[in-house]
């Protein structure tokens, strides 16, 4: 039976993760869950970010369910680099999966898009590019200062994430993959991505393909978000594009993500895209839908596609039945989702 | 009297540039304009992209008015890197200026935003970052291939563009500058940008400031584009953000840009953001508004703020009087704008 590490984290993380667990228990009884304290609370108490012993213990789990990390009391970048990004790198979570869906019953800020019309998934590379941490500076704090950041891209890293995107497209109805890069400016990395895309594409003759520059896709996410099915792109482009995708599908309040090691050699992390929202923490009014959808991704990854689908369907029912703008109670939503999903 | 080099370029470039010239002539009679053939037509005819003799002649002008460059017949990247980006670098056009305005009479794809509510300008760095062309690859076309792209950032380059942004904010009503970067991941370049921003800010105590990560701003451009006044950011972030900005203000059909050397040691380039649109070229139906707004930026840069404003006002009248979705005739729009601006 699956062993899940639970990192509730900070702010509303605790509240929403509790609902995600409730829903997992409802559809897949018997999952073992172990809690780990990581995030701003641990850091502020002990100065630790990801103790080695915790890292080793996490490695023994099948997946990590994460609530939210971060608090204004911690200097920016510390927990992001030391915890969130570190997990992606040490556990080789090279597929950063971000579904973008305009759920029936919800509405987009885009006037021309109707509920149900947006349904794509971004496969963002998670272990390379500008996130490699390869950079430095010279002559700091002098007029001669120079600072660099290097984007590192390997055929190994690019090929495996592109292949994952094609495999996902093959399981979807529209079977289309859009490669997004900036080949007209980033000639070397762009060429590696484009040539690798061509090579992998030959293995998937039934999948339609297209290429778009990142700036063009950023625009099309506003003007024609309906056109996408599976999008594959590099780490930084994926970071930006998925936030636009979340915005046009109603905000990051509903957006789920998985940082996935597809081979399951290491645990994958599943977490809502939203932050810890300290302003509403502890009030029981955070919407747990993004955390629950992350749990749905987790279930699928662990080989429980039916349970995953039932959770997603429960969310669909929940969202379709909400009055526009109505307040939510975290616990009640969790209860309803658990009941729907296990019915 | 000002000497302008005119590069009509490809596709609809010729048609829209003709209207921009018409409007300039109307508000500032006596400007000398010399035409240069550059772009896909020259490249396909002679294989040349930016002949050295042309580059030297361009250097003798006060500004370059550019229509549009590019055609499907030219391999992607060739004209972008060899001409458009090259001009930015050789003429040290470090301020890439991109106003974003939701004009009265036009409408945004965003349901919650009303005409007149969006009015900001992005000051995008134009000569550094990932556009430096510093990168390479090893073991090409083998499983061991690695490709790099390096973002180069200097205190010199960062400081001058940030100072320009503050100076622009000081001349605007809201007096607010938003710095956009990704300091939580790009630690070295991000720190240089953030520290330099702090230092320059001390010179402008009457300007309000804020910082946002690039992914957050990408989202806010959809949810709250009204909040921005002046945005300063690096070359690649600016590329992506300005395309979103164009999308939420009604599309790149209306977006103008300037690649500016503020000291006027070298000519600055002014061009519509839209491309050469080969599909509608030669039909007389391209909207010249973006080209004319670029001419307005040109006039301001050359020290003619009143003429610049009159051109912008003519555009405002034109857009306010258009029936939604009505077709435009390039020549007629140009005639109306010239008449309004010189009235
Ligand atoms: C917190 C930050 C480091 C992270 C990223 O840039 O990947 C976040 O924006 C995300 O998208 O998961
Ligand atoms: C054509 C391309 C090289 C260019 C850029 O990336 O700067 C364009 O997208 C722009 O924004 O001017």
TrEMBL record, chains A, B:
Residues 3-337 form the Isopropylmalate dehydrogenase-like domain. Its cofactor is Mn(2+); Mg(2+). It comes from the Bacteria. Keywords: Manganese, Metal-binding, NAD, Oxidoreductase. This is 3-isopropylmalate dehydrogenase. The lineage of its organism: Bacteria, Bacillati, Actinomycetota, Actinomycetes, Micromonosporales. Pfam families: Iso_dh. The keyword Manganese applies.
